[in-house]
Specification:
Radius of gyration of chain A: 25 Å
Oligomer: heterodimer
Order of helices and strands of chain B: HHHHHHHEEHHHHHHH
CATH class of chain B: Mainly Alpha
Structural class of chain B: mainly alpha
Number of strands of chain A: 22
CATH superfamily of the largest domain in chain A: P-loop containing nucleotide triphosphate hydrolases
Number of domains of chain B: 1
Strand content of chain B: under 5%
Number of domains of chain A: 3
CATH topology of chain B: ABC transporter involved in vitamin B12 uptake, BtuC
Radius of gyration of chain B: 19 Å
CATH architecture of the largest domain in chain A: 3-Layer(aba) Sandwich
Number of helices of chain A: 17
Largest interface: A-B, 36 and 28 residues
Structural class of chain A: alpha/beta
CATH topology of the largest domain in chain A: Rossmann fold
CATH class of the largest domain in chain A: Alpha Beta
Helix content of chain B: over 70%
Chain lengths: 506, 319
């Protein structure tokens, strides 16, 4: 029914899809698989009309089509349910479900009764337990996800795309959803499921397409592929056969403990995470995207409020209320989302470098250009940042230099604990190498670093120990000899679980 | 080629442009009415420019954070009424005036700041609302009647002309400029409002106590408007309700003409000073043409539109 060939999409320098192909037949449930940055989301967005590919052909029933926006996608019979939800929080359940296809009477007036009936029908079908008049924002995340699916199904699509919708669903809800999908399949609907839960794929899908670095790496029948083969196509590595991995650190009295996180819960994404960091260590946090990595880092910094668990920083219970408090206690934070979270684009290079220090000291104390420029000049030489002049605005720098600017901002302050959230995303290879070098030098001088990364090779290269997150839990902690890509990949896909106790391995 | 260079200059050197336009307007002024080339004109232009500078000081600060304050005029008028009413031509009342104006300005600034930060109301809405309340309170306080006059000594210190040209107000200006320039350009607070205005999210994650800083900007802004009101009352020597209402719009125009971005993150008080000069010279020019107040307002409004269209092109950060 649907065929895609030679789809290519570039975002500036980054190639998200490279000559990718994909097809799905009516009455087929197909899994779309891939690791971080493999292009799954982009492919879904191409079909939903949110992203226009640079090249390639899409055919529906053999006829070439163009999908320029989401209306056109809908008209072609494509419906998408997203993990991040396309629901409008301040509207009620009914209005959300019928949004954009409200049943209308004469003069285009919305027929409320009919809308209600339509919405109720699909809610019943999915056995969603909520009042249809309830505002979406008052509902728990799992119910919201179900409504997202209900909304897509109510369009009676010929092609239904489910993008990680099971991530926040409970087991019984997943079962209900799968039963519904089987019914739809009988009616001839083509269904595509994007998920990282391998068990679910084997339960519901017959076919799969695997993307790797924007290319279609493999496609085939799931009955003929085992898990190891799928993971191999996704990552280029065969996962380690071990199904149990250590998650806790043995009581080694090497260095003082700077940070200890115990059973932290941040709903909805983080379910139970314990990690610890010692002085001078680089701790890596890995996993597929959205397994709670960024939430943990932000909780340490005081942005997210944990719903349970303990954070001990320097041995003291420290749940900060704002980044200002955390930074006052010698933490530093580098975001990978430079534009939104780190760079002050029209302020000068010098001011950007000084920004961390700007927040320290008496509010109306003297702060002159000499201090700022002196500090900035030293930092620029030390970290080899290339800028035309200290006075130029930060947005005149290249992405890699901007990121060095942000890292330099903190390193020069010598924080005790530096948090980095995917800091080298979209950074050129040279800058990346330099950033790694800087981090290593700093930990030699006694700084502790926690770095989350979507790039496995980065974690393996730079981290002393790696915690891998899966579904809001730690699925493995890799240390020393254990730090291999195979083990990392296995843990990332949720193929291993923690050893209970954690003292078993000698 | 030549054309593009002029465009480049106009874009990059806004303050220089404003100075050039001021000079050109003044020339036109003299051509139309050669009699206006005298020390008195100079003196009054300087005095009115300084008064507008005082009124725009807080506005500069607030616009740098990415906000706006529409209650400047109302706070000035209220402060002016307190001043004239309390002094009633008597000397020695200044401490009482200050004791009235400061709490009033503090309260207004706090309500503005809390409204923006805690209630997340658009600055335009909350400050306009507060402005209306303060304006009505002026009528409640005075029952709509003209209030007294300021003390002779106070007025004299403002109106006196050194060498027949430089107004006494300049002495006040030295102090106020000193304070404002220090806050904006030489203090941590100043640096933090620039960061906040340029990228609020990043500022927060870098450890700026963004909510407190933003509230403080509104409070300091209101205090400066209150001080401008006291000085304004002394200079005019005669105060009625809403005397200084026009300063809300004038202050915004002065700030924008002076090169401060309305979306925040970039700006300077010296720029605002030049912007003030341009507006006063323009007003003077229009006065020479014997145009009515209404016509003047129309032209002022047109100038604001034009300048906003030309200068406010920097893209905001997508949050």
């Amino acid at each position: 029914m649907l065929e895609m060939h030679g789809i290519t999409k570039r975002f500036d320098a980054v190639v998200a899809l490279k000559n990718a192909s994909f097809e799905v037949r009516p009455g087929e449930i197909r899994a779309l698989l891939g690791s971080n940055g493999s292009g799954k989301s982009t492919l879904v967005k191409v079909l939903s009309g949110l992203v226009n590919p640079n090249a390639g052909e899409i055919r529906i029933d053999g006829n070439p089509v163009k999908i320029n926006n989401s209306q056109e996608s809908r008209k072609l019979g494509i419906a998408v349910a997203y993990q991040d939800l396309s629901l409008i929080q301040s509207m009620n359940v009914i209005d959300n479900i019928v949004l954009g296809m409200e049943p209308t009477g004469r003069f285009g007036i919305v027929n409320r009764k009919q809308a209600e009936a339509q919405a109720k029908k699909v809610l019943e079908r999915l056995m969603v337990d909520c009042r249809p008049e309830e505002l979406v924002r008052n509902l728990p995340p799992s119910v919201q996800s179900m409504i997202e699916v209900a909304k897509a199904i109510s369009l009676k699509p010929r092609l239904l795309l489910l993008d990680e919708v099971t991530a926040s669903l409970h087991h019984n809800e997943v079962d209900i959803l799968f039963n519904t999908l089987k019914d739809l399949k009988k009616d001839g609907t083509a269904i595509v499921i994007v998920t990282h839960r391998m068990a679910e794929i084997y339960k519901i899908c017959e076919e799969c397409t695997i993307l790797k670095s924007g290319e279609t790496a493999a496609k085939g029948k799931l009955s003929e592929m085992d898990l190891a083969e799928i993971v191999y196509h996704m990552t280029g590595k065969r996962p380690d056969a071990v199904t149990q991995a250590p998650c806790n650190l043995h009581e080694t009295e090497k260095e003082e403990r700077v940070l200890e996180v115990r059973n932290l819960v941040i709903l909805p994404k983080v379910k139970d995470i314990s990690i610890e960091a010692h002085k001078g260590e680089i701790i890596g946090i890995g996993g597929l995207e959205g397994q709670g990595q960024s939430e943990i880092i932000r909780a340490l910094l005081g942005v997210n409020k944990p719903t349970g668990g303990k954070i001990l920083y320097r041995g003291v219970d420290s749940k900060f209320k704002s980044p200002a408090q955390a930074i006052k206690k010698d933490m530093g934070f580098v975001s990978g989302d430079r534009n939104k979270e780190a760079i002050f684009p029209i302020r000068s290079v010098a001011e950007n470098l000084y920004a961390g220090k700007t927040t320290k000291g008496a509010l109306f104390g003297y702060l002159g250009p000499k201090q700022i420029n002196g500090f900035a000049l030293r930092a620029m030489n030390e970290f080899n940042i290339k800028a035309g002049s200290l006075k130029h605005p930060a947005n005149s720098l290249s992405g890699g230099n901007q990121q060095k600017l942000v890292i330099g901002r903190w390193i020069a302050l010598a924080p005790e604990l530096l948090l980095l959230d995917d800091p080298t995303k979209g950074v050129d290879i040279n800058s990346r190498r330099e950033i790694h070098k800087i981090l290593k030098e700093c930990t030699d001088a006694g700084m502790t670093v926690i770095i989350s990364s979507s790039d496995n090779s980065e974690l393996l290269e730079v981290a002393n120990r790696i915690y891998i997150f899966y579904e809001g839990r730690v699925s493995a902690m890799l240390e020393g000899e254990n730090r291999t890509e195979e083990k990392l990949v296995a843990a990332m896909m949720g193929l291993v679980s923690c050893e209970t106790g954690g003292e078993a391995i000698g | 080629m030549e054309n593009s260079r002029i465009k480049q200059f106009a874009r990059d050197n806004q303050v220089g442009m404003a100075l050039l336009i001021s000079a050109a307007l003044f020339m036109i002024n003299i051509v139309i009415n050669p009699a206006s080339l005298n020390v008195n004109t100079f003196g009054s232009i300087i005095a009115l420019t300084l008064l507008l500078c005082f009124a725009s000081a807080g506005q500069t600060l607030i616009i740098i954070t990415g906000g706006i304050d529409l209650s400047v005029g109302a706070v000035m008028s209220m402060a002016a009424i307190f001043t004239a009413n309390t002094m009633a031509g008597q000397g020695g009342q200044m401490p009482i005036v200050i004791a009235q104006v400061i709490p009033m300005a503090l309260l207004v600034g706090l309500v503005n700041g809390l409204g923006v930060v805690k209630l997340r109301l658009p600055a335009i809405v909350i400050t306009l609302c507060v402005s209306n309340v303060v304006t009505r309170l002026q009528y409640v306080y005075t029952q709509g009647l003209p209030t007294g006059t300021t003390s002779k000594f106070f007025t004299m210190t403002l109106q006196y002309r050194f060498f027949g040209v430089i107004p006494g107000m300049s002495i006040y200006a030295i102090i106020i400029f000193g304070i404002v320039l220090y806050i904006i350009n030489r203090s941590r607070f100043g640096q933090q409002i620039f960061l906040l205005g340029n990228n609020k999210n990043a500022a927060y994650l870098t450890g700026v106590r963004s909510e407190m800083i933003e509230i403080m900007a509104y409070v300091i802004g209101s205090l400066l408007a209150g001080i401008a009101g006291i000085i304004g009352a002394g200079y005019l020597n005669f105060v009625i309700c809403q005397s200084f209402d026009s300063y809300t719009m004038l202050s915004i125009v002065a700030v924008v003409v002076g090169g401060t971005l309305l979306i925040g993150g970039k700006g300077s008080y010296l720029g605002t000073a030049v912007g003030s000069l341009l507006l006063i010279v323009l007003g003077n020019c229009l006065a020479v043409l014997n145009s009515s107040d209404a016509v003047r307002s129309v032209i002022m409004g047109g100038v604001l539109l034009l300048l906003l269209a030309v200068y406010n092109k920097e893209k905001p950060i997508r949050q």
